[in-house]
Amino acid sequence: EKRAVTQIEKNGYPDSIYINAAKIFQGIHTEKSKDRILVRYGDNLEPPMMAFKDEHSRRVSYELAFNALKYQDLLEEILLDSSAYPCYSIPDELTSLLVVMLYDLQDRKFQERKIFDGEELVAEVQEVGHYLYSYRTKLAAALARCRIKHDALSIEYFVPETIWKQEQRASALPVCVWINTFKISLEDVIRDLEMKGLTKVESVSDFDHYTYAVDQHCHDVLVFPSSLREELLKSDLFADCKLLLQ
User: Which domain holds residue 131?
Assistant: First the structure.
């Protein structure tokens, strides 16, 4: 199961993830003033109805939506510069899906997305995905032109400074996780972590890389160094929802 989660993230996501991420993005995207609107997102004011398969799907959907938000200006510029937008076969109500899937496409270096066995396909996701992939060469060229124009080595250059500073602060914070005691006990979690090579320490001041501590006030909360965040989120303990990110 751990392998399957990693594989999905490397090759793209199930259609349901894109749909949920697009609904989230629709509600949080930056609204431009009328004289600056070049990309239109439709007028869907209904609260989004989202069904997440599990906690991992929820986390990935929000992560994808917020990544698209961070790079909204860049993604819009790529769409316009490549002439992929406007597209009259894709209504304004699907522009959020277009932007979210474009972020993921460039993150995969414009490689084709893999469809997994047993995946429930969504017509809108398939349509937008095929459309973007047909423009992949022009989209990649537009991204390259943006980077040259701004002398940017990577797309991280385009993150607004306020968000970049927030991410820098957040990335330095210890990672706190809840133990899902409906599925696993503290003792079993500790045993699993020790098998993975982690050592228990008394407090965050004693942290090294492969260490963790039990919260002094909540004994079903564990704290890890920030450097372990990605490794933890890809572990079987998170895939099985035995640990939940605080």
Answer: 15-164
Parts of the chain with a pLDDT under 50? 1-8
pLDDT tens for residues 33-73? 888 889 999 876 666 778 888 878 888 999 999 999 999 99
Query: What is the DSSP track for the chain?
Result: -HHHHHHHHHH---HHHHHHHHHHHHHHSPPPPGGG--S------SPP----SSHHHHHHHHHHHHHHHHTHHHHHHHHHHTT--S-TTS-GGGHHHHHHHHHHHHHTTTPPPPPPTT----HHHHHHHHHHHHTHHHHHHHHHHHHHHTT-SSGGGGS-HHHHHHHHHHHHSPEEEEE-TTT--HHHHHHHHHHTT-EE-SSGGG--TTEEEE-SS-TTEEEE-GGGHHHHHTSHHHHTTSEEE-
Same domain, 136 and 235: no
Give the pTM: 0.69
